[in-house]
Protein 1
Amino acid sequence: MNDIANIPNNNKAAKGGDSKDSISGEYTTLNLGPTHPATHGIFQNVLQMDGERIHSTEQTIGYIHRAFEKLAERRPYNQITPITDRLNYCSSPINNIGWQLTVEKLIQADIPKRVDYMRVIIMELARIADHIICNSVIGVDTGAMTGFLYIFQWREKIYELYEEACGTRLTTNVGRIGGFERDFSPTFHTKLKKFLKDFPQGLQEFSDLLERNRIFMDRVINCGPISAERALDYGFTGPNLRAAGVDYDVRVMNPYCSYNDFDFTIPLGTQGDTYDRFMVRQQEMWESLKIIKAAYENLPEGKYHADLPDFYLPPKDQVYNNMEALIYHFKIVMGEMKMPAGEVYHSVEGGNGELGYYLVSDGGRTPYRLHFRRPCFIYYQAYPEMIKGALLSDAILTMSSMNVIAGELDA
Amino acid sequence: MITIDNNYLKEQIASHLGKQLLHCEETYGMLCVETTKESIISLLQFLKEHSELQMSFLTTMCGIHYPDNKGKELGVTYHLHSLVNNIRVRIKIFFSEHDCVVPTATTLFDTANWMEREAFDFYGIKFEGHPNLKRILNVDHMNYHPLRKEYPLEDATRTDKDDHFFGR
């Protein structure tokens, strides 16, 4: 990342490249970002423009780098969950639960079925929220503001559900190692039932506005395409890879949280262009809805957390009246849990791809090393190739359809 | 019909690497092998182009630092995935921090580009042959590699956070 003041000195592209200045040179330099209203986050792209077409792109990232991997090396395992919130903040619960699953894999915890199903409900709600943001913003970037305004109220309903489940909305910190901090409240049940009843209509309304809309289709078909081979080579995962026609979904390939109990299909595209990415997300929302319905209807009875006294905080009334509980409470809060030494990689299907956690534990109170496999960090490097030769307005659209989230990109 | 599992993968890697296979174990269902930095590219290529295994997807790679392992302080971990056979492998290499030049994997995987830049940025591992090896998340004029263990997260001069009661 360059200091703003240093750009003219260090950055060859910013000077106009090829030793010619921007006016007399072959290409015009256009500095898109870092803070540009059309880029939905802090991304800098120094474009070399040939008229209205993009010749080459130089990307600069890291503007909101917060050193999560370093922070994680000083924090006890419980305290890392709030860090993961800030990765892909459009679907924080998936990040939280992915992290908890990683730790549970390391300690080989036995998780009750009810927890699995509760997690599936929360994670699929998060996926819908994530896709709502991405797809409605594609609409906005094509000039279709209405769809965005209509469907955003459903994201608000999902945030209300988060609020009922864990008390927070954006950076959720939902769940604990071993399960949830509390069971779904009666209000959650009421609101979820209402959501499941009403959301299909809202989603259908959004679909009707855009999916077969001639203007929209003309705008997004063949915009920013990528072939399946190139997508795999660039490490694409999630909806972007599936839009290119590769049916890789972590939920199916390496099921976690009892995802194999649910019947759902993986929507696939063929062209890997903006329209396919849009359509894959649209279809995934319907599939997520199906999964939530199935999980909610078959929600097993039982405890909302695993029996893990070393990791899961005891109930407050016991802490005040029971010596054992007080000791456990103290140890957990102070981060003095016994962790086995070992290495584990666990991945979940995040909102925009395979979200992986590579955790190295040396038996200490904090991870020895924690690496996040952030899907958009990996696939955003394909962006220059995808927009080469495209119009500037297509570049904006391609970026929003790739669902690049600055928090996750910069970790 | 060959069953593609960790045993088969282990045999294949062992026959390819021979004496260069330094360590091999299976943890939490994933095969984890250690080799030398000289043979890493040939191993990655072998696994990528293997007609049965087809481990052509580089899931992730990252650096790691063990300051107490003299001569093997720095390391790089690769995670390969076969989307056809749904099998993963973790490959590790370790080398001295005084000679941290590793051949680049960008010749095999385009996705390795930013991953290697990240490992360079945070650990100072130099990837020989990388097309554009410069810092990616930190500022260009930073003169250290922050994820190395010698850089404490908190200000080392602070005295108000003495927690030796907890054995730290």
Protein 2
Amino acid sequence: MNTTTDLKVVYFPSCINRSMGKNSFQESDDLQLTALTHQLLVRAGFTIIYPESLDTHCCGMPFSSKGFAEVNHSQSETLETALLKVSENGKYPVLYDMSPCFYHSNSEFSKALKIVDPIEFMLDYVMPHLTIKNKKDTIAVFPVCSVKKIGKTDQLLALSQLCADTVTIIDSNCCGFAGDRGFLIPELNEHGLRELKQQIPPNCKEGYSTSRTCEIGLEKMSGIDFKSIFYLIEEITR
Amino acid sequence: MLPLSYQKLKDLLSATIDPKRILTNPLQTLAYGTDASFYRLIPKIVILAHNETEIIEIIKQAKSLDIALTFRAAGTSLSGQAITDSVLVVATHGWKSFELLDNNTKIKLEPGIIGAKANNYLAPHGLKIGPDPASIGAAMIGGIVANNASGMCCGTAQNSYQTIADIRIVLNDGTILDTADAESVAAFKKNQADLIQEIESLRDEIKDNETLYHQIQNKFKIKNTTGYSINALVDYQEPIDIIKHLMVGSEGTLAFISNVTVKTVIDEKYKSCSLLIFNTIQDACNATILLKSSPVAAVELLDRESIRSVENDDDAPDYFKTLPESACALLVECRDNDLDNMLLKQLKVRSEIESIPTFSEYEFTSNPKQYYFNWKARKGLLPTVGGLRKNGTTVIIEDVAFPLPQLADACLALKDLFKKYEYHDAVLFGHALEGNLHFVFSQDFSNQDEVDRYEKLMSELALLVVDHFNGSLKAEHGTGRNMAPFVEKEWGTVAYEIMKRIKTIFDPHNKINPDVLINPDPRAHLKNLKPLPESNAIIDKCMECGFCEPHCVSEGLTLSPRQRIVIAREISRLESTNTDPQRLADIRKEVTYQLDETCATDGLCALACPVHIDTGKFVKEWRASELDSSTKKVAAYIGSHMAGTTAVLRVGLKIVAAFHAVLGTTIMTALSDVSHFITFGKIPKWIPEMPKGADKINTNQKH
């Protein structure tokens, strides 16, 4: 944990969040996620450092998912090297803004890097430095597969409960969006989320998760605003 | 090509059932035709039925064409009771409704509800269903009831037979009996007078035969799923009550179960357990006898080999490795809704078995980590053997029960049996309190010598269990095809004749799950053995248990992880034997969409898998092997030009969003549908929720 005098973090915005913008519910003056994360970290007192040549980096997962094992490994190694350098060999934690990317790097990396998933980072690093000002009434939260695989559903619930009085955790398997699969095989996403709508309470208009691509399908299948939980935290601590 | 009558059935049913749910292609019939047993039959037709109206139509049309039907839910049963080479009717999707009744004392459940889900519905009320099979996370109500499945804690007191309140069934002519509905019961009694009369005469015959009457009473004092639940004819007087209870454990051979109402049982709030190590199996079994009358929720036995198989676990105590060869463990569980009462129960257990020395001191624990380890040690036994077995072999779990006083002798006799037939990896464990022992071993079925060895083991097992100890050959896994040849051996001719008559009463033409439970072939247990060829190192340890299926997003759309593995194995078998190029080609035609494209590769299947197989990882390898070199070059190019790619994606998305703003949602969806189709799905399909492009990050910004 950083001391208050040296609150530095390496922020690695995923390639998805670097290229995909806001959802259809968001206003034109809303910040896109990478900018919002920056603002939130600043509010919590962090100094932010970005990896060099950020635009060239990707955790490798999109390649791995499609069977391009070699490209995956080379992308992952390049990222690991860059993160080692920018974090001064693991001196500073590295924030991932998407759970799947964290999961992928966590299983690919071999060096002593302190990479942190979005839920743990918010719960343990950010929230202690912020004041909750306007808690929400009711929200829905979707634990994406990589959250379940690292066993962080309970932490996601705890984080959400700091932010809202009523939290509905969506009970589901993989949503079926699976990166770009939701674009290519939309019926998988429709099948995966066929019970989503009925789980969302009628007065609940906001959903949150930790994976941008999953959120596209969640928005489509629920008809409500689904976005990163970072937006929620930013809003209630504003 | 389907045989004529099957083609006719398919055509007839297509008028009322969505043809997409009537499956006949070789990939799907194999995938759905596979269950957790080590038997293999491939159905000619698989029907994914969604409601009772469809079931009645299927039953009537099949009857008119003299075609046999097998009903199935999750396909997690182990004895070969859920497979067929005729028509398989799967009742999972569409069969998920439930209703809490009578102030939560009862719950009405449809057959496609997973056992653990039923417990989720009851948990807020501190309640659960009685049966607790180890497969409860995947097994569904239809199968749990039809097999009278039980488990660690339910014993013979809270199984489906004891907790069933009502049942709704469809008979072989389409007649419905709903025992919860007085009108249905009255109509049934009126219209099926012959059937009622035959049940009554069976009941009266048994009552008049004192030997048989006592035999039935005695045999059901311990767990027994060999043959039908003929205790129904002893325990109940009313024919409707008898029918209701005969359906429990009937393995789908008498009727289709549309729903069941079961009595709920208390799920105690406080739970604790202790792992007691004894110096010998005899000590452990003697302690079990004493514990029978003490307030325990479960007593599980683990033999020395079982302990050895978990001794390398991170949480295992060090002394596991140095235990004497004769040692034996009991996992004892105490539960109560009141904490003080639970502690009192622990004291009672202690004093009850005071006279028997334990190898070391023991403490009860409610500490989640220790509690979880103790149970993990017990529950991990099957997967441990399964995970260590040689590729190409299957893992077999036997399921016998003995009267409690004979348990120690029976354990030793079983261990001698493993030695005699050289099953060196066999581990012995089980629900000691109920005299129910499981032994797990790996078995090769790929050559005749090995099949012969298994045959000898089974024959001698039957002698040992039946003649020496008067036990049950199947305690809780059902008779299936595996024990059907031994039902008469266990029960004797008189009782077996009663069972055959039960089958004839409900299914006179032998068309409802034939060859299961009642089978005249003395070698039925050695036929139709499932091949498990090596295919890929990631999936070779799969036991096809089906525990992954509820955790898979594509299950029900295309394939589940288990089904993907089944298909991969069949492709490997066909490729290596070159026996049926046409079949291989037919399967290959469907495989890209079914196995590859619709897998989300999320890996949640691995969390539920007893041997931790990540089928998603396998599918990624599959994708890699399907790629041609030019595609790989494109990927490598994208990889080395990531900066450009995210830029293109950013701009691309912005252009799409601009079009959207101009053209509106409907027209955009239509346009992208076309391009999606003509590019064979390779261009992302545009959906209204597709995000706009992001702005480039300014990494130089300072706060």
